[in-house]
Design the sequence.
């Protein structure tokens, strides 16, 4: 019997993890990504891998020891600050007993996680510079699928996995549901070489993440492994706010306008966090898929990660559940290869059923966190969650 022809769209954490897990089982697949090469796009900040989430999957992928060398357990340190500057908790200077669920969540830079997964894959299994436009039923072979890329078509796949993130081009094959605006827009700012160039900021933020939550606003600063700090100044505003708030985000005075308009009554330290960052402000409206998203199974095509269940980052679970999706799907695919290829439909449908249950649970939690954190008691709610 010919091996299954498997395509994974997207070389993010979900797609690369699935490719690695299949490789460990000796199942060939091809990953397609729109990036021109692995270095063509900044991978952003840092993520934490949970013991029963990303870490469990990394272990299954045979990469736990390598992961431990790259991870930053000290990056777990959390500092919670009220809008008036009062420090509620600072794990950089005090020992706080965390709830079981929030223990053992070492941080890793996204770039390092990507390098770890990429380095574990056989060369040639990833095709860069392939932007998917859509999935179609094969006109030539019943039960197979063709991939329409920008400039080319790849034919006759048995299994197509959409791991292509928020704006998935595989998703429309399965459902007409689209991401919608969550109500929160963040302005991203960076400070580089902080131990030398921004010593005050470096000390104020500490080794991990500093959070300020308040009614309709937040400031979140996260240290990365490359000695940089990424800050999000976030506000609850309408979707058109970026354009109609009157701030020119590329102008030198954008930071002061942001502070005057939305953080004027905050403590000087919190304003300084914004002022000490560089002038390259990156607006990021946050989108999400419906909390209860589901679709009718279609044998051979499925989604994992953000493509399946995009949520805002306020429960910090996105990468973790993307990787758990990859683990579950790899098991479903392995069972078809081992036992019976005719079972692809049933195995993938069972996988999706469990993924829907899990994603709904985490999407609900994320939604509740977003509501409670962006409130006058937000920082206390955050403290109660983890300690
Ligand atoms: C500010 C912020 C902070 C976060 N913090 C955390 C955290 O601390 N912990 C956590 O667990 N999660 C966190 N998340 C969520 C996490 O980043 C995502 O859930 C995770 O990246 C999803 O992985 P993915 O592989 O599904 O999608 P992505 O990471 O989006 O990867 C998708 C891949 O598909 C490719 N692609 C897209 N479209 C196409 C196309 N048409 N054709 C071909 N390729 C395509 C892209 O180039 C990309 O490589 C955070 C998210 C944000 C926004």
Sequence:
């Amino acid at each position: 019997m010919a091996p299954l022809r498997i395509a994974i769209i997207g070389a993010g954490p979900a797609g690369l993890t699935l490719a690695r897990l299949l490789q460990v089982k000796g199942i060939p697949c091809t990953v397609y990504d729109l990036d021109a090469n692995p270095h063509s796009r900044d991978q952003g900040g840092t993520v934490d891998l949970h013991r029963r989430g990303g870490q469990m999957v990394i272990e299954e992928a045979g990469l736990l020891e390598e992961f431990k060398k790259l991870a930053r357990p000290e990056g777990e340190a959390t500092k919670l600050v009220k809008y008036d500057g009062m420090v509620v908790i600072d794990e950089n200077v005090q020992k706080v007993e965390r709830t079981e669920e929030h223990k053992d969540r070492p941080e890793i830079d996204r770039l390092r996680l990507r390098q770890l997964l990429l380095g574990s894959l056989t060369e040639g299994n990833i095709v860069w510079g392939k932007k998917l436009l859509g999935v179609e039923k094969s006109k030539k072979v019943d039960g197979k699928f063709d991939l329409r890329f920008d400039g080319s078509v790849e034919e006759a796949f048995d299994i197509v996995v959409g791991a292509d993130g928020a704006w998935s081009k595989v998703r429309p094959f399965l459902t007409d549901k689209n991401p919608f605006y969550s109500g929160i827009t963040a302005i991203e700012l960076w400070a580089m070489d902080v131990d030398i160039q921004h010593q005050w900021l470096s000390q104020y933020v500490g080794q991990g993440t500093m959070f300020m939550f308040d009614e309709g606003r937040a400031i979140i600063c996260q240290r990365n492994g490359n000695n940089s700090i990424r800050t999000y100044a976030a506000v609850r505003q309408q979707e058109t706010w970026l354009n109609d708030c009157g701030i020119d985000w590329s102008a030198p005075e954008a930071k002061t306008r942001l502070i005057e308009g939305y953080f004027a009554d905050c403590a000087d330290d919190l304003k300084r966090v914004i002022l000490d960052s560089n002038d390259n402000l990156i607006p990021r409206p946050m989108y999400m898929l419906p909390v209860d998203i589901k679709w009718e199974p279609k044998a051979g095509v499925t989604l994992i990660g953000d493509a399946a269940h995009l949520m805002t980052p306020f429960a910090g679970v996105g990468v973790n559940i993307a990787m758990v999706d990859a683990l579950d799907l790899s098991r479903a695919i392995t069972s078809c290869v081992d036992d019976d290829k005719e079972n692809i439909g049933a195995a993938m449908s069972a996988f999706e059923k469990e993924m829907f249950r899990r994603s709904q649970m985490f999407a609900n939690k994320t939604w509740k966190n977003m509501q409670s954190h962006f409130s006058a008691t937000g920082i206390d709610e955050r403290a109660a969650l983890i300690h």
